[in-house]
Write a structure and sequence with these properties.
three-stranded antiparallel β-sheet, alpha/beta, about 400 residues, seven-stranded mixed β-sheet, globular, single chain, 13 helices
Length: about 400
């Protein structure tokens, strides 16, 4: 019943033209920017940093009375979103405001002392998707570390976790597997807002040094809310996450995508929504996936030809692929990350000679293991291609993390 009430509220909010939830930037503005008065401000953001009327946080702070915006910092894709995934971002000057822009996705992923010398406080405002391999949370953590080292304040303008605040999946990152896609020892899906995660990292000593952290919380958000419930507009935080639902699809297929053994809808109109390859029989695969009766899922056969390819496949000929489109029918019930392992299990049963982990031998297993935060998932799964062989290991840290992180909940 609660789910339907939230949906009704969201629908009424949409009709009335205002959001049910106020994000951190709006709460800050409604309070007269009192926490930033008289301070020199740096801002880490991208196009998803907007208010409910789609005005950029860059422009809001640049125009804020008593606030001096002196520097911008661009994560992956850049402040204005004009860089592709994985591309280095250059230092520049923001053409609209004339404010100096520093890259945090080029020569360095962490602000240097030189980058921070002219500011008093570094503000972070980016819409994240609640997944460990999505690099914005890593940028947030490293910015907080840099501020702690340089004696600067760090502020997070909070935003919703589009998966809600209760979905936690996956093992913690293990020694030897930390990287930008697994920067901190947290689960693959961590069930926290950016402000809650920053507080957890800061208070639990996950970051190297404790920062002077301020979180400007949202108003009106609850843990059971999905993004559509908030009434807020969605601005894609990166090109392959065009809707809030793609936060879930990213978790569904993003790990297997690192193998480049299948097309996951990247290069087509359904990014992260598909599992397909040239040799697969779409109808048979759909039948086999639906026969698993995975809670929260339905699958339909699909046949399509990608418009482009990425990574090591980029130079190869575009061919029609066949497989399934994934439908998430109940997000709360769906095990998002494990879906791709069930798919690999079924493909191995249907096509036992298909190359899965060895499809791109030159690439190796490095990125797959880094994204998983361990090599144990791959080693255990690739012996028999059975989800049963990894499910306990994959979930071993979930309950302990929930118990520890719940101390830092800002919303209920």
């Amino acid at each position: 019943m609660k789910k339907y009430i939230l949906a009704l509220v969201a629908a009424l909010v949409a009709l009335c033209g205002s959001a049910a939830v106020k994000t951190g930037i709006e709460v800050l503005r409604d309070g007269g920017f009192k926490q930033l008065q008289g301070k020199r401000v740096g801002l880490v953001t991208n196009p998803s940093g907007v208010d409910s009327q789609l005005k950029s946080t860059v422009d809001i702070l640049n125009e804020a009375p008593g606030v001096k915006l002196v520097a911008l910092y661009g994560p992956e894709h850049g402040v204005r979103g004009n860089a592709h995934a994985g591309d280095a971002v250059s230092d520049a000057v923001d053409p609209k405001t004339g404010v100096k822009t520093y890259s945090l996705y080029g020569k360095t992923h962490k602000p240097t002392p030189e980058m921070l010398k002219d500011i008093d406080v570094l503000v972070y405002d980016i819409q994240d998707i609640g997944c460990r391999s999505y690099t914005f949370y890593a940028t947030m953590g490293m910015c907080m570390e840099a501020c702690a080292e340089q004696g600067k304040e760090f502020m997070v303008l909070d935003r919703p976790n589009p998966l809600g605040g209760n979905k936690v999946e996956g093992n913690l990152v293990e020694k030897g597997f930390f990287s930008m896609v697994s920067k901190y020892a947290i689960p693959y899906l961590y069930g926290l807002t950016p402000g809650e995660l920053a507080t957890y990292l800061n208070e639990e000593g996950v970051t190297a040094k404790k920062a002077k952290l301020t979180v400007i919380p949202m108003q009106g958000w609850t843990r059971s809310m999905k993004y559509r419930d908030t009434g807020l507009p969605w601005v894609l935080p990166s090109p392959q996450v065009p809707t809030p639902e793609h936060a879930a699809f990213y978790a569904v297929s993003g790990v297997v995508g690192e193998l480049y053994a299948f097309n996951t809808g990247i290069g087509y109109t359904l990014p992260f929504e598909c599992f397909a390859e040239t040799y697969i029989n779409a109808d048979s695969l759909a039948d086999a996936m639906n026969a698993l009766h995975l809670p929260g899922y339905s699958f339909r056969p699909i046949n399509y030809k990608p418009f482009f390819k990425v990574g090591p496949e980029a130079s190869k000929e575009l061919k029609e692929v066949h497989g399934v489109q994934v439908y998430i029918t109940d997000l709360d019930k769906a095990d998002l990350t494990l879906c791709q392992f069930y798919f690999m299990q079924v493909v191995h049963e249907m096509y036992p000679n298909a190359k899965i982990f060895d499809a791109n031998a030159n690439r190796g297993y490095g990125m797959f293991d880094k994204v998983m935060g361990t090599d144990q998932i791959r080693l255990r799964f690739s012996k028999r291609y059975k989800v049963a062989d990894i499910i306990d290991y994959f979930n071993k840290d979930v309950e302990a993390f929930k118990a520890k992180s719940s101390k830092y909940y800002l919303y209920h």
